[in-house]
Write a structure and sequence with these properties.
- Strand 7 (179-182), helix 9 (191-198) and strand 8 (203-205) form a beta-alpha-beta unit.
- Helix 1 (17-26) packs across helix 10, helix 2 (48-64) crosses helix 3 (75-88) and helix 8 crosses helix 9.
- The chain is α/β, with parallel strands linked by helices and 263 residues long.
- The protein starts with 6 loop residues before the first strand and ends with a strand.
- The strands form two sheets. Strands 4-3-1-2-9-10 form a six-stranded parallel β-sheet, sandwiched between helices. A four-stranded parallel β-sheet has the order 6-5-7-8, with helices on both faces.
- It is globular.
- Helix content is 45%, strand content 16%.
């Protein structure tokens, strides 16, 4: 039986588009709703209470627009708010988890590095995850203030962004990391810079496809997949200044899109 409702996806800004694109690859016939809360980015420098309030407001907004499932396409919002969202709402809510497990299993040097926002790295759930897989590897963390802002400004390969990436990656390499985990969905758009700064011997771990597969699995489990033969639509909202929002979402989605304003 078809379920025509859309999949709701949100992030503190445009980073979650890295996951939305993967969901679109796996589910080309599903309708998508995407909220970029860019005026409040980065969540990683905000309090947990603030992030919970924003996550709840956006979840309710997406549900009012008939979302049948919610993808919290933001590491910081996942660690800060997803437990409460799942307690308050009954629809499937899928979060993002840094790829510490695959990095730990694959590491040869016994050292893995994690790039993330300050709030993610301070969270209880991140530290629980890190401890779970730190028996055989050492997990080195690196907060990355300023990186989200560079991505929101579409400075994906500027000299300033390259300098910041090198500043955050090099300490992890010097500590022996042979895997670098991207602990923020925004950082997927800097993966080429991160690989360049880390060197060919270092593996960069991104979980965007894993989240997309989990979204498919959860929709199947709840009989929520659409069986429409038509290509799905994508509707976008952003709290950024309208001309910037249009440029951000069109460039990173890969085609010109209409962006609705949201506060």
């Amino acid at each position: 039986m078809t379920h025509p409702g859309p999949i709701g996806i949100f992030d503190s800004g445009i980073g979650g588009l890295s996951i939305a694109r993967r969901i679109r690859e796996l589910l080309p016939n599903e309708n998508l709703l995407y909220v970029a809360d860019s005026i409040h980015a980065p969540y990683g420098e905000k309090s947990e209470h603030y992030i919970q309030q924003r996550s709840d407001a956006i979840t309710r907004f997406l549900m009012e627009n008939q979302a049948k499932a919610i993808v919290v396409a933001c590491n910081t919002a996942t660690v800060s708010a997803i437990r409460q969202l799942r307690a308050d709402y009954t629809l499937p809510i899928i979060g993002v988890e840094p790829g510490i497990k695959p990095a730990a299993l694959q590491s040869k040097s016994g050292v893995i590095g994690v790039l993330a926002t300050s709030q993610t790295l301070k969270s209880e759930s991140f530290n629980n995850l890190s401890r779970l897989f730190s028996e055989n590897v050492r997990v080195e963390i690196q907060p990355c203030p300023g990186l989200v802002e560079q991505i929101e400004a579409l400075e994906l390969d500027s000299e300033a962004t390259q300098t910041l990436v090198a500043r955050y990656v090099q300490p992890l390499i010097q500590k022996g990391a042979d895997h670098i985990v991207l602990g923020c969905t925004h950082y997927a758009f800097l993966a080429p810079l991160i690989r360049r700064a880390a060197g060919a011997h270092v593996e960069v771990i991104n979980t965007d496809m894993a989240v997309a597969r989990e979204t498919v699995r959860r929709l199947q489990m709840h009989n929520l997949l659409s069986d429409s033969p038509q290509a799905g639509s994508a509707t976008f909202w952003s709290s950024a200044e309208p001309s910037l929002a249009h440029r951000q979402l069109s460039e990173l989605w890969g085609e010109r899109v209409t962006v609705h304003p949201m506060r």
